[in-house]
Amino acid sequence: MVLLALCAAFLSCIGVGLLMGESFGDRSLMAFEMTIVVSLMLALVFYLLGKRGKAKLYRREALCAIGLSWLLATIVGAIPYMLAVEGCDISDAIFESSSGLTTTGATAFWNFYEFPASLLFWRSLSQWVGGLGVIVFFVAILSSLGAGAKILFTNESSGTSADFDQGRVQHGAFVLMLYYLAISAACVVAYRVAGMNWFQAINHAMTTVATGGFSTEATSIAEFNSPAIEWVSIVFMALSATTFLFVIRIIRGQTHILRQNHEVYWFYSILVASTGLLMLFLVELTGELPNLDSLRMAAFQATSIMTTTGYASTNFDAWLPSAKMLLIILMFIGGCSGSTAGGVKVIRIAVALRAALRSITHAFRPSVTINMRMSGQNLSERAIHNVVLFLMLMAALQIVSMLFISAMEPELSFLGAFSCVQATLFNIGPGFDAVGPMENFHFMRPTTKIFVSLLMILGRLELYAVLVLFAPSVWRRFS
Description:
By secondary structure, this protein is mainly α. The chain has helices at about 1-20, 25-50, 60-85, 90-100, 115-130, 135-140, 145-155, 170-195, 200-210, 225-240, 245-250, 260-285, 290-305, 320-335, 345-365, 380-410, 415-425, 445-460, 465, 470-475; strands at about 375, 375-380.
C-alpha cells in the first residue's frame, strides 16, 4: 500500500513535468517512469509474500511495518535522483530522499535549483507526504486493519488514538487528511497573493505545511526578499507546528479545549519569548533600534527553527553566538505533538521540567504526594518515566552521533559537528558553520551521508520504530 501511494506521487510528478514543458523523452520523466515500474514490481512481490499472512496487526508487527516502510520509501524515493541527476552518487540520492520524506529539509545537492520541474516537485511532494506520514495516509485508506490501525497511527503520528472523539481511528486519520489538504490549499493561495508564481506557491506551500523547508530557490525564502511572503511563512509554519487536533476542535467550536491544552500555550510562549530575545541580539549585532524589519527577521528565524521547517530569510550563521545558542535550544525543543514538526516536542520538555521541580520538592518533603497534571489529565508515573527515558535516549544518541561524525569528518568544527547531528536528528535542515543555512551537505563522505540519513528517520519516527528492527532480543523474547 505504501509503494502504491508512492506510485501515485510519482505519476503526479510526471504530470507536473509535462505541464512545465518536459516531454516523455526527457531524462527526468524517464526516471520517474522507471521508478514507477520498480515500485509496482516491489508492491507485487510484497503482496504475493504477504497474501497468506494473518490479517491482525499487533504492536511489534506495527512497529516493524512502520520502520521498514520508511526505510523502503526512502530507498524508492532516491531512485528518481539517481536516474535524473547526472553523476549523482547513491549516498546523495538517499540523503535527499530521506531529507524529503522525514521533512528535514537539508540537501546534498549544491545545484538543486537547476533541477527540472518534475524533480523539484518531487522534492516538495516527498515532504508533503512525509509531513503527515505515509502510514497515516495508509491507515486512513485501509479500514480493514481494525485494532492494528490504532497502533499504526499512535506510533507514526506523535499522537495517541485516545485524542479522537470518534470510535474509529481510520475516521480520525481521514479528518486529519482533510485538514491537511485544506491548510495546504490556503497556504498556496496566500503565497500566490504575496507574490510567488503558481509553481513556487505550490512547492513552498507543501514544504511549509509539512514544516520541511525544501525550496525551489537557491537561497530559500531569502531569494524573494519579500516581507509579505515571510509573514505568510511565519503564520503557516506556526499553525502547522500546532497540534492538528487542537486546531480542528477550535474550528468545530469546541472552545473548552482552550483551557485544557497546555502544550499549545507552552509552544507559543516559548516562540514569543525567543522572538523577543532574538530581536535584542539583532539590536546588539547591528547597533540599530528595534523596528519592523528586525521583528520580522527574528520572528521568521525563531518560527522556522522551532517548528523545524528550516527556511532561511537571512544567513543566521553570521549572528552572535548567543543567538546561535538560542536557535540550538529551539532545535531541540521542536513543535507540538500531533503536528508535522520535529524535535523532542514541547509536551516532553514541559513534563520533564515539572518532574524535575517535583523531585526538588520531594528532596525536602519526601512523604508528600504530588500528582502531575497536563492538559487536564493526571500523568501516571510510567508516562513520566517514559518521557525522561526518551529524552535520555535522544541525548545519548546525539553524543554518540557527534563522536561518529567528528571521526568521519575531521575537518568539521565542534559547532559544525554538533549542529549537523542536531539538524538531522531533530529534522531541522540547516545547522551552523559548514552545514549552515547557505551551505549544503554535499562535501560529506558517503558513509556520513548514509548515517545522517538514518538519523533523520530515527528522529522522524521517534526512535522506537527503527530501533526495534535492530533489537533481535525483542523478537525472540516476545515471540
